[in-house]
Each structure stands twice: as C-alpha cells, then as structure tokens.
Write a structure and sequence with these properties.
Elements (H helix, E strand, L loop, with lengths): L3 E2 H8 L3 H10 L10 E2 L1 H14 L6 H6 L2 E12 L21 E12 L20 H6 L7 H85 L14 H5 L6 H20 L5 H16 L7 H16 L22 E4 L2 E3 H8 L3 H10 L9 E3 H10 L3 E4 L4 H13 L5 E3 L3 E6 L5 H12 L2 H4 L8 E6 L2 E6 L4 H9 L7 E7 L6 H13 L3 E6 L8 H9 L13 E4 L8 H15 L2 E3 L5 E10 L3 E10 L2 E2 L3 E4 L2 E9 L8 E2 L4 E7 L8 E5 L2 H13 L2 H8 L4 H9 L5 E8 L2 H13 L6 E9 L4 H10 L2 E5 L5 H10 L3 E4 L2 H13 L5 E18 L3 E14 L4 E5 L2 E6 L1 E6 L2 E2 L2 E3 L3 E6 L10 E10 L4
Helix pairs in contact: 1-2, 6-8, 6-9, 8-9, 8-10, 11-12, 17-18, 17-25, 23-27, 24-27, 25-26
This protein binds guanosine-5'-triphosphate.
The site of guanosine-5'-triphosphate has 16 residues, from helix 15.
C-alpha cells in the first residue's frame, strides 16, 4: 500500500503526470515514466521538496512528526509584539516581532498521530483550499484511504499556510502604502509651509526694495534739481522697454557724475537696509541695478556704458561701507504749517519748563515775555495767566492742568503706601495741660532735666518743641508747649499729634477755670486724660479735694470707680514722676498705639523758625515710617531735602522713627506748626505740591476749614446733614451761664441735639475760637467779647460769633436755627473801639473819658457798650464826643478823643468803649 505509481499519485493529487514527473525530477527522485513506482520515502522527499519550494524548510522527520488530525476554527486575533506568530499555525517567522495588529487565525484542534499511523507524504492538491475548512477537510480524495486523506490534508495545510502568508504579506503591503500616503501628506504640508515662508521672505524683500526705492526717489529729486541747473541736455534717447514709463519720463538725462553719485548713495541705502537685516543679501544684489535706475528715473538704455561699470563696482563698494552720505541731508520736507502743541499749564511754571513743554528754546520764551514787557530769568516762576498768555502768543494751545493734580497724585501715592508696611507699637505723644501756675512747665522741665540723655553725652538740652524720654518700660514723647491753647491751635489746623493729655492740677489750688477748659479740649479731641495732682510736697496740698472737684467735670478717678488715672506728683521733688510715666505707658498700651517703622516718613511740624546761620529749622514729629537724612520732604508750602537732623540734645541723627521728634534742616522756608510732613519720591514732585499749595488762595483755604455758622447750620439742618448744634458759650457771670446752658440744652429735640462743647465765664479767647474750629461750633458770647487773638482766628476761619445781652434773644436765635426759622437777622457790627486812658470829671460835662480810638471809628450817634476785661458792663449811648474843644460826629482810629457816656459815670482807665451798628441782614440760603 505504501508504494504507488506516478500515474496514480498524479491522479490522486489531480495534476498531470508530466507535471508530477517534472516535480519528482526537481525533487531529485528518479521516476522516468508514469508507471514508475514511488516508495514511501520518495513521496516524503517530494513533499519536503514541495514545501521547501513554498518556503517551508522542514526535514522529513519533522514533517512526519507534524502530521496531526485537526479541526480548525477561524477567528481574529490581535498579535502583540511579544506574541510570536510562530504560535499560530502557518505563520511565517518573518512576521515575528511586528507590532500589534489584527490577523485572522485558524485555530486547529490537534490530535497527534502515532508515527505508525502516518500515511505517505501528502501531495499538494491542485484545488484551491476553501476557507470553510471543515467541509474541505471532509472532502474525499478518492484514494479511499484515511491515511492518504490525512496526507492530502497536510498538503492542503501547506497551501493554506502559503495563502495565509500571502494574506499577511498583502496586509503588510497595505500598511506600507498607508505609511507612504502619510509620508506624502506630511511632505505636502511641509512643502506648503516652505512655500509660505518663501512668500513671506519675498514680501520682506519687496518691502525692503520699495523702501530703498523711496529713498532713491528722494535722492533723485535732490539730484534732479542739481541736474536742472547744470543745463545739460539729453543725448541719450530713451531705449528702455515700453512698460518703463518712469524711465521714459526721465528723458532729460543727468550728468554721469551725478548719476554715479546717486547710484552709490542708493546702494548705501540698500546696504543700510541689509545691515538692519531687512533685505537678504541675494535680494540686494538682484535689486541693486533696477534700484539705481529707478532712483535716477531714467531708462536702462540711457546709461548702458555706465551701467556695467556701476554693476561691476557695486559689490566692491558694498564690502567697504562708505560713509552714509544721506545722513547729513534732509530726506524729508520741512513742514510748512506751524506745529500747534497743547501745552499743559499748572498753577505755576518756570520759564525753562514752559519752554520745554512748547519744545522751544528758553530764550524764545524770555524774548516773548520781554515783548510783553516782562524781564524774566530762565528759572523764574510764572503764574498761570502769564504762562497761558505766552503759550497763546507763541501760537500754541494752553491747557489748564487740573488744579489739584499734584496734591491728588501725592494723596494717591500716600494711600498706596497705606498698609504696605507692618505696624508696630509706637511711643505715646503727650501734651501737658492745666491752669496757670499749676506747674506744667516745672513738670516738663523736671522730666527733661532728669530723663533726656543729654547730660551724659555732653549735649546741651535744646528746646525744639518736643522731646522724648527713655524709661525702663518704654519711650514717652512730650510736646514742649504746655497748655490747651497750643493743643487746640494744633488741632484746629487739623493736626492730630497728641495721644494722651496729662492734666496738671495743683493740689493746693484745686480745679480752676483753665482746668475745666483743658478737660473740655481733651474731651472734644477725644484724647484720654491722666491727671497729675501736683505740688503734693506742699503742706496745704489736698489731693482728695482735687479728685472731688474733678468729679464735677465728669472726671472720676480709677480708685473711685472711674476710668481716669490720677497720679500724685511733685515737680519740685520729683516724687511720683516715675509713676506718672508708668501711667502714661499703661494708657498707651490700652490705646494700642501703632505705626509702621519701615517706609517713607509722615509727620507733623511741631514748630519752625528761621535760624541766622542754618536757615529754616523745623521740628518734625515723625508719626509713621522713618525719616532719613537725604529724604525729600514736603511740608505745607515748603519743601526740600533733609540736609541734617538733630535730636533734643543737639546731636546729629541719621534717622528718626515713629513718635520721635527731630529738628530738620534743608527746607525751603519755615512751614507752620501743625503742617503735615510727607516724604516724596523726587524733588520736582515736592516742588510742584509745595507751589500748588502756596498758590492756593487764602479764600479757598478758608472755605475748606471754616467753622460752622448759624446760617450754614440752618442749611445743613435742612439738608439733613447736621444732627447736632455745637455751641461754645461764654458769659459774664455764672448765673447767666447756668441759665443759658439749661435753656439751650432744653432745645434739643429728637432730631437735633444741642451740644455745649464748652461753657465758661469770661471773654472769648483764642483757644475758644480754636475749639470752635475743631468742634464745628458756634461761639456765643453773653455780655462778653472776644479778645484780639480770638478775633483774628474767628476772622481767619470765618467762624460765627454772636454777642447777646438778652438771654431770650440768644435762646430764640438758636431755637430758630434749629427750627429752620432763622429769618433775616439783625446783626450787630462793631464799628469802632476806644480805650479809656484817663477819666476827667468836670462840672460842665460830667464824667469824661479820655480815650484813644484803637480800632475803626467812633460815631457820636451810634449805640455803645462799656467793656471791662472784655465783659460788657454798660450799654447805652454817647452823651458827647469831642476832639480838643470841638464837638465832632466821629473820630477815627489813631486819634484821641473825649467821650461822655450818658447816664454812666463809672468809667475807669483800661475800660473799652465799643461803638456798634445794628443792621438787618436778609439771609441768603
Ligand atoms: N512746691 C512746689 N512748687 C511747684 C511745683 N511745681 C511747680 N511749682 C511752682 O509753681 C510755680 C508755677 O510753676 P510753672 O511750672 O511755671 O507753672 P505753669 O503751669 O507752667 O505756669 P504757666 O506757664 O504760667 O501756665 C513755680 O513757681 C514753680 O516753682 C511743685 O511740685 N511743688
């Protein structure tokens, strides 16, 4: 059974005998004809050959070992690189290692056969194996032998393997094509990008070329004008191409020299462009010749002979850059219309600054002002009107700078700094107040003498307006000017310097009028009090009585359940001074006084003076930040760089932190006490702010700071702004004062409160006026007058001061103000004041007062009042007014006169006689 003839085998595998014979021959098997028999071995040899010819390299043994019975199922499998394709039947080793992809896999369920069971080698079938292997495998070959069938299947399997390999190869081919398509697409994108870049480059070249062309045209204009004057006629008719109309236009030829020169210049231009990197080298070379021609506006044919030379020389010249000849020539036309500038004019401006803002020389401004009849220097400061005049005369437009620009900018700068630096506890600043002779100065002196560190350091204690002392528990700064006048004056000007008020009350004297005033001032300012009961060394000292009296002013000692610390001291012996300092520091702790140490300084002027040798000297109390030597400061209307700083011992200091007073040199003038001090970034800024402030009119300053008047009060009440009427009441006697206070307080309604900020007996003083400013109060005088200093403040601040002599009138006015019924009021104007120097008595004229008119004018027929110590003692009319022996109707200021007061004989030297006028004034709302 194992041997078959060639013919049989050919019919079994379904191929022609000749083909099988040739295959056998190729396989090295000697089979001469169709009837030759083939051994089992030869059949295997043929199979091996056939497999090998299909790519399988197997030995006969291997082939035999591989004979299996299989049932196959086809599925798809994702091959990962780790999975060798060898594991799938029929895969080629060449596919191993390929990256993951999906392949169709035939899974064959194998049953190994014994070697004995194996049939002769399979013969490849001519029929194409079907994909549905099941049916194909069951197909009969017609040999009738199961073994043969198996062999055939093995052959079929070989073919299928070949088919699978082909399929995989095709798949591989498809992938390759996809890769190639991807690559092609990438290349096309790249090519497009390159094209775009190329276009961009071309555009840049074109731009450079155009620029060069423009430069050339400008040059040509210039040269053209020269050429015209040279009167050379054209000898070269245009021979350029018909589209070169520009070239034909330039029919009139230019001298060759000029052309050469011009061409050179254009090249220089192009070279310059090239240096700037705007024109690529290649573009330059390409463009050089056309540019030359265009530059000269002539046809290329005009200068055939010349052109070559130029072209030849051009590169050489480019290598050796010539001095750009265009540099010293104007390439543009001077504008024919004058340039009109908008010039910003601040409040004041220097000649130099004004000139610079108009872009003219300072000498031109000086000349213009000279024409206007003003001789000025370059640094002279011009006011706004003059500056505007000059600007307009010179043909520009003046724009008024925002008036408060510099101030607003400064404010903004300061606000920006706010909160930027961390705040740390700072020493308290103390003001000492009290009644006359209760020991304020003694107390301050004692503390300074014993505490200011000048003695050890050999310094001399300076009075700079403030000083600070070191104690084991901390530093305390004292303001050197005692009394509430200075305190309230500072506050009236808006300075908030004092943190704590030490109220000195002499233990032997008790609470006195100024003690009460001091309490009122401290209270109005919202500054806490510490009471120093002084002179306890004295026998007659009675501290308890002081404490008792203070309760009447709502100042209650801590030991009595109140909140005011009271310390018994002696400025003479020094007893209790340490306790006082301790109390101050304790109070400071309660107040949690804090200020940043870093950052630009802010402070207040405590006092200032003009020193002969050192110029303006100002004591600055630093309130925040650190003031350093060299800082630029603005204070009020003055500014300057801090040239030097000194402490209260006269020693130089380099820096001063919060709550530390220092004497500063370097300001442009002497600022006012209570002016604020700020450090600014540059001197120009400082000057601007200072000048702006200086230029502000006095009136506007008054407007900002004025106190309240009854009329305003009415308006404010109407507008619902003001909810309380603050009054400072001064009266001649305690009885009237009490009566008035009571009546006024009763006027309070639910909506409007009457608050008596201060009330006292005696004339109206400067500190009363200052208190009126700070507390926005009306000053009401009942049978009392304001003294000269108070009148000055009242006038400066535009305070409302009213005098009354009838209680109900005063009450009525305030009532009307509250009710909004203040109708046209009768105001009294004091028109003259005379001082009584001597008193004569004559039988003929009665009592005659020899007077000097110190203010205004005394009129014979006007009503008068007699004042003694600023308190009204009589009101009436004049009996007589004489100058020497003559009766006169009026006497002016500076003249002497004799005054007889009707029905009043108690006139004394020192009294004052005031003459007033009653006028009715309609209220303007
Ligand atoms: N025995 C005694 N006398 C004192 C004490 N303190 C001040 N004096 C005296 O009281 C008088 C007035 O003291 P000043 O320090 O001038 O009082 P003041 O409050 O500053 O006075 P004015 O500056 O006028 O407001 C002086 O003669 C001091 O010597 C003290 O503690 N004991």
């Amino acid at each position: 059974m194992s041997e078959v003839t060639v013919k049989q085998l050919a019919s079994t595998v379904g191929i022609p005998v000749e083909r099988l014979l040739s295959q056998l021959k190729e396989a090295g098997i000697s089979a001469s004809d169709a009837d030759s028999t083939l051994t089992e071995k030869e059949k295997l040899q043929l199979l091996v050959y056939l497999r090998r010819s299909h790519g399988k390299d197997q030995t006969e043994g291997e082939l035999g070992a591989q004979i299996t019975v299989k049932r196959k199922s086809v599925s798809e499998l994702r091959i990962s690189p780790a999975t060798s394709p060898r594991s799938t039947a029929g895969s080629r080793p060449a596919l191993a290692g390929r990256s993951g992809k999906t392949v169709s896999v035939e899974v064959r369920h194998k049953r190994p056969l014994n070697r004995d069971e194996t049939a002769p080698p399979p013969v490849p079938s001519a029929r194409r194996p079907t994909s549905e292997g099941g049916s194909g495998e069951r197909e009969h070959t017609g040999s009738g032998s199961a073994i043969d069938d198996m062999r055939r299947r093995a052959a079929l399997e070989a073919l299928r393997a070949e088919q699978e390999a082909r399929r995989l190869a095709e798949q591989e081919e498809q992938e390759r094509r996809a890769r190639e398509a991807e690559e092609a697409r990438r290349q096309s994108v790249e090519a497009r990008r390159r094209t775009e870049e190329e276009e961009e480059r071309h555009r840049a070249e074109e731009k450079a070329r155009l620029e060069a062309e423009q430069a050339a045209q400008a040059l040509q204009q210039e040269e053209g004008s020269k050429a015209e004057t040279s009167e050379l006629s054209s000898t070269h008719p245009p021979s350029g191409p018909p589209d070169q109309s520009a070239a034909r236009r330039a029919d009139t030829s230019k001298p060759k020299k000029v052309v050469k020169k011009a061409a050179e210049r254009v090249e220089v231009e192009v070279d310059k462009e090239k240096e700037k990197g705007r024109v690529p080298k290649k573009a330059v070379r390409k463009e050089a010749a056309p540019i030359r021609l265009r530059a000269l506006d002539v046809g290329p044919g005009d200068y055939e002979d010349l052109d070559g030379a130029l072209n030849e020389r051009a590169p050489r010249r480019r290598k050796k850059p010539t001095k750009p000849q265009l540099q010293d020539k104007h390439a543009f036309q001077k504008p024919t219309a004058p340039v009109v500038r908008e010039v910003e004019i601040p409040e004041t401006i220097t000649v130099a600054e004004l000139a610079s803002r108009m872009s003219v020389k300072a000498s031109e401004v000086i000349k213009e002002l000279f024409k206007q009849g003003m001789m000025v220097t370059i640094n002279q400061v011009l006011d706004r009107d003059t500056a505007v005049l000059v600007v307009e005369e010179m043909g520009h437009k003046a724009v008024l700078a925002e008036e408060r620009d510099a101030e607003v900018a400064l404010q903004e700068e300061l606000e920006e700094q706010e909160g930027q630096f961390e705040a740390y506890p700072r020493p308290p600043v103390v003001t000492i107040m009290g009644h006359v002779d209760h020991g304020k100065t003694s107390l301050l002196d004692y503390i300074r003498r014993t505490r200011v560190a000048s003695a050890e350091a050999g310094g001399i204690t300076q009075h700079i307006g403030a000083y600070h002392v070191e104690t084991p528990r901390g530093t305390v700064t004292f303001l050197d000017t005692p009394g509430h006048a200075a305190f309230s004056a500072m506050r009236a000007r808006g300075a908030k310097v004092t943190d704590i008020v030490v109220l000195v009350v002499a233990a032997d004297d008790g609470v006195m009028p100024q003690t009460a005033e001091a309490i009122q001032h401290a209270r109005a300012a919202g500054v806490p009090l510490i009471v120093a009961i002084n002179k306890i060394d004295k026998h007659e000292a009675n501290p308890d009585r002081v404490m008792q009296e203070l309760t009447q002013h709502e100042v209650l000692a801590e030991e009595w359940g109140g909140d005011t610390m009271m310390v018994k001291v002696s400025a003479k012996t020094g007893a209790g001074i340490d306790d006082l300092l301790e109390a101050i520091l304790l109070q400071a702790e309660v107040l949690e006084l804090k200020a940043p140490i870093e950052g630009p300084a802010r402070g207040t002027i405590i006092e200032s003076s003009l020193d002969k040798g050192r110029g303006p000297v100002a004591t600055v109390l630093v309130q925040a930040g650190t003031l350093k030597r060299g800082d630029i400061i603005v204070s009020g209307t003055e500014y300057g760089r801090v040239r030097a700083m000194f402490d209260e011992s006269g020693r130089t200091v380099e820096a001063a932190g919060p709550s530390i007073p220092v004497q500063v040199l370097g300001l442009s003038g002497t600022p006012n006490a209570s002016d604020d001090v700020v450090v600014v970034s540059d001197e120009r800024r400082a000057r601007e702010v200072a000048e702006l402030r200086a230029a502000r009119s006095r009136q506007s300053r008054l407007d900002e700071q004025r106190g309240v008047s009854l009329d305003q009060l009415f308006t404010q009440l109407k507008e619902g702004e003001q909810k309380s009427v603050n009054i400072i009441l001064k009266a001649d006697v305690q009885g009237s004062l009490e009566a008035l206070k009571e009546s006024l307080l009763k006027l309070s309604t639910d909506e409007v409160k009457v608050a008596i900020v201060a009330a006292g007996i005696g004339g109206i003083t400067e500190s009363d006026a200052n208190l009126a400013v700070t507390s926005n109060a009306i000053l009401l005088g009942f049978n009392v007058r304001a003294d000269a200093a108070a009148r000055r403040v009242i006038e400066e601040r535009g305070l409302d001061l009213r005098y009354y002599s009838v209680i109900y009138e005063l009450i009525d006015d305030v009532k009307k103000a509250i009710a909004g019924l203040l109708r046209p009021v009768v105001t009294e104007e004091i028109i003259g004041l005379a001082e009584v120097r001597e008193v004569f008595r004559s039988s003929k004229f009665g009592t005659v007062a020899g007077c000097m008119v110190v203010e205004g004018v005394i009129k014979r027929n006007n009503p008068i009042r007699v004042l003694r110590n600023n308190v009204v003692i009589y009101e009436g009319t004049l009996e007589s007014l004489r100058r020497f022996k003559d009766d006169v109707s009026e006497v002016k200021q500076g003249f002497e006169c004799g005054i007889g007061v009707r029905n009043y004989t108690d006139v004394r030297p020192g009294d004052q006689i005031e003459v007033f006028e009653r006028t009715e004034r309609a209220r303007v709302l």
